[in-house]
Amino acid sequence: MTAHTSVLPAQAAARLDDYAVIDVRNPGEYASGHVPGAHNIPLDHIRAALPALKAAAARGDLLMVCASGNRSDTACSELAAAGIPAATLTGGTGAWAEQGHPLDRSAGGSRVWGMERQVRLAAGSLVVLGLAVGTRYRPARGLSAAIGGGLVFSALTNSCGMAAALARLPHNRPRPADLEATLAALHQR
């Protein structure tokens, strides 16, 4: 197993041309703003991309990126288990942009909501639905309690089941042609 390291945004910016940057967020999040030169391979496609990532790592350093650093850290752990060295961007694209580094945006990226915003909409809507229906059918208020409990669990474990479920929706999935082109570009890097 290979250990992974964390790289601060300023360190990554200084060496950006030395990295194969892999953004593990869903395509909608990637389109809304990503580190320049980043390739989009959503976290749930990392295993399928292992051969391309191994080839890219043999030619240079891999830098895994997400919104906050959590998913990229998970990706680094999966790569480490496969013997592929990789680093994670500390604080993700949020810290990158906060420190004044540029983000590239894909065409139509401003129309796509980030995963955190999608989770807030879904959770808020379900809570309101549970409360509204609960005025007539009292047990429906349990939906609101379940969502609240899920949010607390999400905060305590630093994971999010709702985000995992939303990531499976069609608008959050890469088109097969996009993923194939990304993997081909990594093989050629």
UniProtKB/TrEMBL annotation:
Q: Which Pfam families has this protein been placed in?
A: Rhodanese (PF00581), YgaP-like_TM (PF11127)
- Which InterPro entries does the entry mention? Rhodanese-like_dom, Rhodanese-like_dom_sf, Thiosulfate_ST/Rhodanese-like, YgaP-like_TM
Entry-linked PROSITE patterns: RHODANESE_3 (PS50206)
Looking at the record, the residues that make up the Rhodanese domain are: 15-105
Instruction: Name the Gene3D superfamilies for this protein.
Output: 6.10.140.1340, Rhodanese-like domain
- The protein's name in its UniProt record: Rhodanese-like domain-containing protein
Give the organism, scientific name.
Streptomyces laculatispora
The top of its lineage is: Bacteria, Bacillati, Actinomycetota, Actinomycetes, Kitasatosporales
